[in-house]
UniProtKB/TrEMBL annotation, chain A:
Pfam families: SapC (PF07277)
InterPro entries documented for this protein: SapC
Naturally occurring in which organism (per UniProt): Sphingomonas longa
Protein name: SapC family protein
């Protein structure tokens, strides 16, 4: 449930923002181009299609079967790196709001803990910092989309069919995810390899593929969370 | 037109150069298929297309079959590019209005999805046992696609990969733009050489093979295989070889069509996701929705109505929007060649035959012909005779079946209100094979065993949709409720109901999907 409203001191004068508190339900979050190298240390990075445009977004998987963020414990994010979009779920850009912001009043990061958004009815410097971070995030997400569009145009993307099986053979299949096609990557011509490398687009492809080993971490977190047999993942 | 006396190449001579004579959809599709196959296999075969810039194309065929998805993929054209450049829309089948009794509410669907579980079970007897004429229509009982069409919903979402969807689909397209797109792709990406000129002479060898086509400026375009895509002119298959034309006018009476292009009233008007075929007093009207306009036309028998009356009927159908629109007339000389492949010449498209577009068979026949030619291109002149025999046998069969299937739409009507419908139901106009099958199908549901070819162009599900859609009197033995098949049928029908409800809730509006494809494109995977 979300309730988006332009940021305004009359309604939000006492509100505080705690970036350490994150939503507990999302199974994935979009990440930007500059986050790949950081997020790959913790999470599997995949591609998923936007429901409205069909274009690929770059995402970090946070959960498996249940609508659950497995890195979220007691409302706080426990990993080396927290994706920026996850920290900013409570904010939107909005021309009518203070500092050009709107907020989701139901977001868990906005409440009684953390830093104030207003003091004595005036916006704190934090609001401008947040608006700037949002703008940079949006540009970073666009840059990630451009990268993936380039991979798609070069036929370097394949569906990722993630099968999770428990020891009782109970099976879950997660569809709708995509990843780098290693065979297609290996089959690139020398000229294309150089073009991608010079554009700083070869290393991210390798990082995305390598990050899939983090699915194992999600399986471990899932088992710890639910106190049951671990999933064994194939993909 | 032709001369002999020159020595041809021997039987062991390899087939290296294919000359396609004539452009349009048929010519460019033929050139693309052969060139793409040569590129894929590295066969070294080269393709040239000779086209006059003074002869307009007929532009027949604005409806395709689902086969077009595979054809475009084989040629290497992305679905996004195709939809954008051809004003294309998606087609999930046809809705036949007024064909059964002509009374208000008379309509049925021939969807492109096969009935649920078609590879395991025939649901027709189960539907008949349930409906007793009063329940869900056959198409609604065994499949969900008619409901999608009724709701104006698309067979795929923007997240589906190119050429895939949640329901089977084909296309409606602008035939002129289609030919242009194929031409650009053939010349820019597939290495097809485009030769512009008027063919004034065809030079043959002693054995009758075509050596080259000579152009008005004296150029001679030589080749090993010639594909005649010269349309109604049939320059090679008719003009050079005089292969007789087998008329089917004694079975299918329509011999004329008038067409108009109707703009949408508003930019956001719904686009029908199916062909609408509405029966008239002496024929029927097609209505297809493209991205920018509708294509509407009246196919009729000039023996049963006048041209003026036919045009008036079309204008009545379109309504006030027709006042400002002109019509284009197309003569339909329904029939096909007795042979399609003669010596080193094969006819594809209108030069091979033409028939009223009731089931959109024109482009499908071009595709099917090119599948046979491109995928089994004879490597030597000697092999060509064998391939030609196979081709002729196969396509004679296909044409017979197409004529028969189209006739089915007319012959089982209950309409007796005009001479056109009465004459159509007369036994004298019915092909023998069809009469035999209809006798069989009164007591047996159409099944794969009823057809001799492994790959029929119209298979048994199509016959079931038309027969049961038109309330053909069928008397199948009842299936006992305890029979294992009854349980399976109940499960499949229930699953179909769930799928329908799910898709009605989540499938996008057809126009919305097309807008998204045009704006964002589809992903390849």
């Amino acid at each position: 449930m979300s309730r988006i409203r332009p940021l305004d001191p009359a309604h939000h004068g006492a509100l505080r923002f705690d970036p350490g508190i994150v939503a507990s339900t999302p199974r994935f979050v979009q990440i930007g181009l500059s986050e790949i190298v950081l997020a790959a240390a913790d999470m599997p990075l995949c591609l998923a299609k936007d429901a409205h445009t069909g274009r690929f977004n770059l995402i970090a998987l946070l959960g498996l079967v249940e609508p659950q963020n497995l890195f979220c414990v007691d409302g706080r994010f426990h990993a080396t790196y927290c994706p920026r979009a996850l920290q900013l779920t409570g904010f939107r850009l909005h021309p009518d709001g203070v500092a050009g912001l709107a907020i989701d009043e139901e977001d868990p990061a906005l409440g009684a803990s953390g830093q104030l958004l207003f003091e004595n009815g005036r916006a704190t410097p934090l609001t401008a910092t947040i608006a700037d971070a949002l703008r940079r995030l949006i540009a970073d997400l666009d840059a990630a989309r451009d990268l993936i569009a380039d991979y798609a145009a070069r036929h370097l993307i394949r569906p990722l069919r993630l099968t999770l099986r428990r020891s009782d053979q109970h099976e879950h299949v997660i569809d709708g995810l995509y990843t780098i096609d290693q065979d297609a990557l290996s089959g690139l011509s020398d000229a294309d390899v150089v073009i991608l490398h010079r554009a700083d687009r070869l290393a991210p492809a390798t990082l995305l593929s390598a990050s899939l080993t983090q699915i194992e971490r999600l399986c471990q977190l899932d088992a710890a969370r639910h106190q049951q047999d671990r999933f064994h993942a194939t993909f | 037109m032709s001369n002999g006396g020159e020595v041809g190449r021997g039987p062991a001579a390899s087939v290296n150069t294919v000359i396609v004579v004539g452009g349009g959809s048929a010519g460019w599709l033929a050139a693309c298929r052969i060139a793409a196959q040569a590129k894929r296999t590295g066969s070294g075969v080269t393709v040239k297309l000779v086209e006059s810039d003074r002869i307009p194309t007929v532009g027949v065929g604005e409806g395709t079959w689902p086969t077009m998805r595979n054809t475009l993929a084989k040629i290497g054209i992305s679905e996004t590019d195709f939809i954008r450049s051809c004003d294309a829309s998606l087609k999930q089948g046809a809705r036949f209005v007024g064909w059964t009794d002509g009374l208000p509410g008379d309509a049925y669907y021939h969807p492109l999805n096969p009935p649920a579980g078609a590879s395991e079970i025939d649901l027709a007897p189960h539907w008949l046992g349930r409906s007793d004429g009063s329940g869900a229509s056959f198409a609604d009982c065994v499949d969900y696609q008619a409901a999608l069409c009724d709701a104006g919903l698309a067979p795929k979402t923007i997240t589906a990969p190119e050429y895939a969807g949640h329901a089977n689909y084909a296309y409606h397209l602008d035939a002129g733009k289609f030919a242009t797109m194929l031409r650009d792709h053939a010349t820019a990406s597939l290495g097809v050489e485009h030769v512009i000129g008027d063919v004034t002479r065809v030079n043959q060898s002693d054995n009758g093979d075509i050596l080259d086509v000579e152009l008005h400026d004296g150029r001679r375009i030589a080749g090993d295989l010639f594909v005649d895509c010269t349309g109604f002119a049939a320059l090679l298959i008719g003009g050079v070889y005089g292969v007789p034309f087998k008329s089917c006018r004694d079975v299918l009476f329509a011999d004329r069509a008038i067409a108009m292009q109707v703009p949408y009233d508003r930019e956001d008007d719904p686009i029908a996701c199916h062909t609408i075929s509405t029966a008239q007093d002496a024929g029927w009207i097609w209505d297809i929705g493209l991205w920018t306009r509708r294509g509407v036309g009246h196919v009729y028998s000039s023996a049963h109505t006048s041209d003026d009356a036919a045009e008036a009927a079309l204008r009545r159908y379109v309504g006030p929007a027709a006042d400002a629109l002109s019509v284009r007339t197309i003569n339909i000389d329904g029939g096909y060649r007795e042979r399609f492949w003669q010596n080193n010449c094969v006819a594809v498209g209108l030069s091979a035959g033409f028939i009223e577009p009731l089931e959109a068979s024109a482009l499908m026949l071009i595709e099917t012909s090119m599948d046979a030619i491109a995928d089994r291109l004879p490597r030597t002149r000697a092999a060509m005779d064998m391939v030609a025999r196979q081709f002729n046998e196969t396509f004679r069969h296909h044409w017979l079946r197409i004529v028969e299937f189209l006739k089915l739409h007319y012959v089982i009507t209950h309409r007796t209100d005009t001479d056109f419908w009465r004459d159509n139901a007369a036994a004298a106009s019915m092909p023998d094979g069809l009469q035999e099958r209809l006798d069989l199908w009164r007591h047996h549901s159409p099944a794969p065993q009823d057809f001799s070819h492994a790959r029929e162009v119209f298979s048994w599900p199509s016959y079931q949709y038309v027969l049961h859609g038109m309330r053909f009197a069928s008397h199948y033995p009842p299936v006992g409720a305890a029979a294992s098949e009854a349980t399976m049928a109940t499960g499949l029908i229930a699953r179909n109901d769930r799928l329908r409800a799910d898709l009605i809730a989540r499938a996008p509006r057809h126009r919305d999907l097309l807008r998204s494809v045009r704006e964002y494109g589809l992903q390849r995977v």
